[in-house]
Amino acid sequence: MKDPSIPDLCLTKPTAIPYDQVTRFLWGDKVSGEVSDWVYVSSPKMHQIVFGMPSGGWFRHSEENKTIFGADILYYVLEGMLAMSNPQTGEVHRVNAGEAIFFRKDTWHHGFSFGAEPVRVLEFFCPSPHAGTAQTYARTKPNLTQLKYGQDPLLGRWPLAQKETSFTMRVLREADVLWRLEGDRQQVLVGILVSTEHFTIGKIRLLPGQSTGTRAHGGDLALYVLDGQMNVKLPEHDGPSWFEMKPKDGFFVPQGTRYEIHNIIGRPLEAMFGVAPQYLP
Question: Which fold has domain 15-172?
Answer without folding.
Answer: Jelly Rolls (2.60.120)
